[in-house]
Amino acid sequence: QSEAFKSKVNELVDSLGVPDDVGASVKAALEGRKQLLQNQKNALYKQVAETAPDVANIPLFTDKLMESLPGKQELRRLSRLAGSQIGAVDDLLVEFGINKSDDAVAAFTKSGGEITPLSIGNFEDFRSALNQIERADSTGAAKVVTGPLKAALDDEANMVTQSIGGKATGNVLDTLKQARQTVRTMKTEFSPESITGRLIDVKRDGVTP
């Protein structure tokens, strides 16, 4: 299915010219396809969390998520464009136990925040919060931070679900397999190197489409 999809996209690009000439309608169709896959994946993981509490409580490692963040200098530059949204991301990183800095944790808890470590059961809540931040930012700068974070989140969730087969049986195991397959499909169809990925992904400056 993925190969057939990519073939159709290649035909479109060949007929329309170079990617820069591809019309808004084609980009909208590609974005719709990607969003559909994301929604399917999210629903499958949510189903697992709701039907298998033991699986839902399995933690996700967060090192890769921290590594996905831009450097301090780039973060400062992005903050000039979307200071509120970048600050909101920082707050989320502490809330979900991703940023474990003593100073950040102390400031968060002092303000009344409650830390809930990232797990199979709540990582879609984290993703949803990142999406809200993206929607609140008209500059596109926040997506430079949230995009890689969500990609790293998917990678970690996929790795964990691959390793918990012994804790999942029957319908739960089938649902996990479907979720992993959906992630693989997304990575195949919308990798940064693919034509589709290059057409719709936001560049590192957060502005260039």
Write the layout of secondary structure elements.
Layout lengths: L1 H15 L7 H28 L1 H4 L6 H5 L4 H24 L6 H9 L12 H13 L5 H22 L7 H20 L5 H6 L9
In brief:
The protein has helices spanning 2-16, 24-51, 53-56, 63-67, 72-95, 102-110, 123-135, 141-162, 170-189, 195-200. By secondary structure, the protein is an all-alpha fold.
Structural notes for this entry:
- This protein is an all-alpha fold and 209 residues long.
- Helix content is 70%, strand content 0%.
- The chain is flat.
- 25% of the residues are buried.
- The C terminus is likely disordered.
Supply the key terms.
single chain; 209 residues; mainly alpha; 10 helices; flat; disordered C terminus
Series of H and E elements: HHHHHHHHHH
Would you count the extended β strands for me?
A: 0
Query: Could you give a short account of the major beta sheet?
Result: none
What's the tally of helices?
A: 10
Indicate the structural class.
Answer: mainly alpha
Which spans have pLDDT < 50 for at least 5 consecutive residues? 203-209
Residue share in helix: 55-70%
Mean pLDDT across every amino acid position: 80
Oligomer: single chain
Query: What's the N-to-C terminus distance?
Result: 27 Å
Apparent shape = flat
Nearest-angstrom radius of gyration? Answer: 18 Å
Question: What percentage of amino acids are in beta strands?
Answer: under 5%
